[in-house]
Specification:
By secondary structure, the protein is mostly helical. The chain contains 11 helices and 2 strands; from the N terminus they run ααααααβααβααα. The chain has a two-stranded parallel ribbon. Helix 1 crosses helix 4.
């Protein structure tokens, strides 16, 4: 009886390994079809289109996953990568990959994680605590925190023009500018919950550090409430963004901004899926 149980367990493990291999193989096929033009054949961010982009593609072999729910210095979850596939990264060439279904997104997320260093531990998602009531006292606390921790990069008015702004580089020594927090859309923090996550976890591969240990949850919410007091400007596209006559005629000027038009030229499959989604 014991021998039969052991045999069944071995068969289950073999089946699990086979399934994982099939998922990774499927993920690689999807990656090769849609991702290598920017991220490169080995996932190092050196694809043939990378030179065109101001926001450089991520090098997955170096593990600087920018947008995730897990603590700084840990791997993201598959769902974190799926969220980036679904949402894209606004103002950059990374478009939502709506041509992929859920299974395909999961497979390519697993494959991308397989490219990252094996010595980095897997992280657990940081919970988002309750939102406190917005009060003048909370906003005043948020202003104090912002001026203490954030203004040196983001500037006193949040316009990305702090005294350190011109000196900053990313993990590959490419120049990088702090976000202008008075403009929308931001790359990812376009809801209070996403902003909370980014302040907590930081943005790896950039000078944006995590504040999970330095600030209490109510302090992070206070900072978010203070940011909401800034006068917000909605970004629009100009012809220099490569929109073209067709884009202007279809009303894309308000829909797509920054390098998103480069993304549409580079990633036609994602561009078609995105356009179909916006027209439905």
């Amino acid at each position: 009886m014991k021998k039969k149980k052991k045999h069944n367990k071995e068969e289950q493990l073999k089946k699990s390994d086979t399934n994982q291999t099939a998922i990774l193989n499927a993920g690689k096929r999807i990656f090769d079809q849609y991702c290598i033009v920017c991220h490169g054949t080995d996932g190092k961010g050196n694809g043939p289109a990378a030179y065109r982009l101001d926001t450089k593609p991520t090098d997955f072999t170096a593990d600087p996953f920018k947008f995730k729910s897990t603590p700084y210095g840990t791997h993201p979850t598959e769902n974190d990568l799926i969220a980036t596939l679904k949402l894209g990264v606004r103002t950059t060439a990374m478009l939502p990959q709506l041509q992929l279904d859920e299974q395909q997104m999961y497979a390519v997320a697993k494959y991308i994680l397989s490219l990252s260093p094996k010595n980095i531990k897997r992280g657990e998602s940081i919970p988002i605590p309750r939102v406190p009531e917005n009060t003048p006292l909370l906003i005043n606390n948020g202003e104090r925190i912002f001026k203490t921790y954030c203004a040196r990069c983001h500037g006193e008015e949040g316009k990305g023009n702090g005294p350190l702004a011109k000196m900053l580089v990313d993990y590959k020594q490419n120049p990088i500018r702090p976000a202008n927090l008075t403009e929308r859309p931001l790359k990812r923090a376009n809801t209070p919950e996403r902003m909370y996550r980014i302040i907590s976890t930081g943005i790896e591969g950039t000078p944006m550090p995590p504040f999970q240990q330095a600030l209490k949850p109510d302090d992070i919410w206070a900072t978010i409430y203070y940011l909401e007091t800034f006068k917000i400007k909605q970004l629009t596209s100009s012809n220099k963004d490569g929109m073209g006559m067709m884009g202007r005629m279809m009303g894309m000027r308000k829909m797509f901004v920054g390098e998103e038009f480069k993304g549409m030229q580079i990633d036609m499959a994602a561009a078609r899926a995105l356009m179909m989604g916006n027209m439905m």
